[in-house]
Predict the 3D structure of the following.
Amino acid sequence: MAALLRDLRYAIRMLARSPGFTLIALLTLAIGTGANATVFGFVSALLLRPAPGVADPRSLAAIYTSDFSSGPYGDSSYPDFLSLQAGTSAFSGMAASQDDAIAVVRVQEAVERLRMESVSGGYFGVLGVSPEIGRLIGPGDTDPRAPPVAVIGYRLWERAFDANPAVLGTPLVVNGRSYTIVGVASRRFEGLDLGRAFEIWTPLIPPPVTPASRTSRGLSVVARLSPGASLREAQSQVSAVAERLARDYPDSNLGTLAAPDKARPMLMLQHTRMPPQFRGMVWTLGGIIMGAAALVLLIACANIASLLLSRAASRDREMAVRLALGAAPGRLVRQLLTESVLLGLAAGALGLLFALWTADLLPSFFPAEQARMLDTSVDMTTVGFVLAVGLASSVLFGLAPALQAATPSALAALRTGTGGLSDGRGRSRLRRTLVMAQVAVSVVLLVSAALLVQSLRNAVNADLGFTTRKAALASVELPDAEFNPAQGLAYYREAVARLQRLPGVEAAGLVRTLPLGLPSRRGFRIDGYEPRAGEDMELPVNIVSGGYFSAMGIQMLAGRTFDARDGTGGAPVAIVNDLLAARFFGGEAIGRAMTDSRGRRLEIVGVARTGTNVSVQEPPVPLVYYPLDQEYASRMT
């Protein structure tokens, strides 16, 4: 320890003697280290950090019920949730929640659009979330006969009620229904998943038990592992439940498109804030960004190594004298590496300041609601990462110059007074190698950046089946308590008519779910089509007005769009995309019929061009369009 302290004192003195070199080296390394710290903090916020306000997040698990043809990470039905609760012992608690999306909320005299979630009675207990004031939703609140209660978020409490504790017992009107506020959630808790910040929680009332109950899947299930239980043991129990449900309820729990004769899988994963279907893509993107930042740091290290080699030439006589006096080469290497490590750690500290300054840079590219939930502040994990990067970069840029400076050939500098010319040739070769390495890595970065720009340009200009080049969006919420379907339809018609009369407006329409969103699904029977064993006949559906296709530039390939013939008193009709027409009707869908799960027989009056439905990465899916006049929705865009 004493020798290390001597090395540190000597290193500080030597660096202080060359303030110009030290400043340049620190700034160069700080930029490289800070870039890595900023990117790591962003990737950590996306993939590694648990939801704030949750107790022991490492023991939380998410349970998914596979869809027939839409992947393994589907939602669950309420009866399946009850079966999981009763059929597993590896969990100390299990809860279900349903994202009710945006609700129209009357807060005192103001009306706001807030995100609401319905939760089962044990939800907050499973998560270990504590109330700021009052109480949270409990099992008794989910009884259909219980008075309706609500828990509000801390931000809403501050914004609308001035953080007044007297808010308890205050009525809150949500979608026309009155709830009594019984508590305020913890200051830090806004929900489990990224991008969905909830401000109101209400009890999840069990739905009526019907034969179709198990096919109504819209719940997220989260569970907490019992002490000592492993993920493998819990997955085994969940799979056993899936096998039993497949035997007892084959209509809803048997088969997927790939394996129609096997039980529909139920998967359990350790809970993370990023949905599993997007996790691989985000890891890939994070790895690319981290790789680019690492290359920047590598260039900085090569630059500093070149500076150290140049500086070593001025210290040849010092090294030669120390070798002549009996110092071992290893001792000199240790001293020089101590200087490098000191530089690396000081640059790491500056890099942390850089990361603090730029922490909100990457989240600023996200929508405000999502950016708020991306905690990119510097935590102990980031500090540890920066410490490791500082030590690794110190060895990377300091080892070769240290070995070069402490070689016994440096004694020639003392004997001849030439400054070690023979050794200088070796340094010159090493410097040239470092310069070539910097140029090579810089070329890789430039080429990669050019390819990324080209890829983004291709993505922006890709044919998605619709166009938003000149589109403007506005969402509309019509509370059910204030608008019945007839009044709502009249409002929509008047709104679209006024928009179409505005100067410069070419087309206007309404849609329930925008492209690249997650449309709802509904079961269908297709006339003349015999499903394969276990084939999923739940298809994505959307609700649109007749002007939607023109406003979004979606081409009609056959038939017509919705018009006045398709009103509330007209025959039920639908428009399908050409992917559905090809799959079920051999491409000839006009005039054919399909019956939905509500028993309505729909005549197909149009075929629209298939576009990108869910995401740019995923293939298009069959889609059924309902006319708004026949399938009223209180929330449209």
